[in-house]
Structure formats: C-alpha cells, structure tokens
Design brief:
mainly beta, Acetoacetate decarboxylase-like, 12 strands, 12% helix, globular
Length: 288
Amino acid sequence: MTLKGWTLPLSPTGKASLLPPPPWHYSGEVITADFIVDPAKLSPLLPTGMSPNQEGLCSFVFADWCSSADLDPRIKDDPSSGQYHEAYLVVHGTYEGKPMGRVPFIWVDSDLSLVRGLIQGFPKKMGIIAMTRPVEIGKGGYKREAGALFSAHLSSHGRRLATLTVRIERNGEDELPKGVATPLLHTRLWPSLDKDVPAVWELTRAKVADFEIANLLIGSPQLTFEDSEFEELAELEPVEMRSGYVCSVAFSVTGAVVLPVERSQNEDKAVSSPEGKASFEVDRNRGS
C-alpha cells in the first residue's frame, strides 16, 4: 500500500498528514508597531544581497489568525486546527533594489502553523501569545475607537519576550502598516543528516493574492523586549518608536517564487562545516 500525505505523518489514507498544499487563506486581527533599531545590529540578520533600511526600520507584529486550505476543509471547520496566534519581528530593507522585509524571529502557538511556516521559510518557534480582542458591545473590553488601549505580549519557555501597547488616536485612511503590507524574503533551510551541506537552502518569496486591510486604527505605541538565554530579541531594543496600528488583515498564499541564492563564504561555513557547529554554543550564564 502506498503511503499518502503532503507532509508527515504519512498514512494509508493521508488523513493524518498535518498540512495540505496551498492555496492557504488567512483572515486575522493585528496589533503592530514600527520602530527604529541601530542598522548595524540588523545587517547580520539578513541574507546576502539584502540590505537593511538606512534608518534601521523594523516592525513587530502580533496576529490572531483564522486560516483555511482549499484541499482540507477540516482546517476551517475546526477552530483548534485553523485558528492560532503569532508574533514576529520584521526587518525592513531592500533586495535587488526593491523594498523587502525579512522575518528573523517568529513565534506561534499551533503545530500546523509551525510546520506551514517552516515549509515557507518562516523560522517559527512555539510561544504563548495574548492579545486584546476588540469588542462590539458592552463594557467588557476596548472598542475600535480613539482612546482604546490595545495590548499584546509574547512568552516562550516561561520567559516574557515582548510586550506591545498601542493607544488609539485616529482612524487610518491611506496609510498601510508596513509590518503586514511589505513583501517578505524567506530562507528555506532543511539540514541534511548525511552530508555537510543542507538538503535544501534557497530564498523564496510567497505568491500572495487577495490582500486586504480593514478597520485600520493608528496610535502611539510602546514596545519592550526582554532577555532570554534561548533568544536574541532583546539586543534589538527600539531606540525610537514610530506609529502603532490595529487592523484586520486578509490574504491568500498560492505558492512561492524561488530566487537565486547568493551566499557568502562565511554563510557556507557557518551552516555546513564542523567549525560552524560551534556557533550553537551558548553562554549558560546569560539568562532572563
């Protein structure tokens, strides 16, 4: 009998496979903010050929997603499968002369989202994410209006990593949140178990369709990062805050474009060579 499935686990029917192929569809609520980091700290996070924004512009995004897939209706029908939270850093820059974003760090609270992200090139890890949910009636929460305070925070391995608040000031019009409206450049990396070089190492950019933003609110943000011996986010503490946003976002991923990979000798050495494995050693005295 032939085993079936687009991802592991394979099974006789394919029903156990965690994820079907695209198209995948996303609808969500987002809290995000733009901020400035020393550009010298951002360059090491980017692949060869991509340069950071001259100002050091970054975004941090929290999202509460509903997702679905054309080839597996169970993802949409069961909220435990298709709904999840996400938090990630976007480094803004240019690639081949065009605006491009890069996500060096991202956390989710769903195994389906984790694997779907790794397949695309998102470096996803598991985390715990909480976000203010807008209310339509009553006094139990904040409505989408001036003065409302939207908050979100991220934890992983018992450590608080990021906290974001946005105090709403006005409705948005033509302005777009850069953290969700900028194309992203990913690295798909799958190590090989019997060779020094990776089995897969390529740059990709998602094919996105039907992108929409609604209910856009703009306000003043505050963002803090905290230390953890498992992460490197705290080194990117903002030196200046820009705008904060609360909005609804929707789009579809129909596939991806694979781009030529230009790698430096240092990158090849760090990923493939025995010497490069030493880079995974950590300072055990460093912690939160």
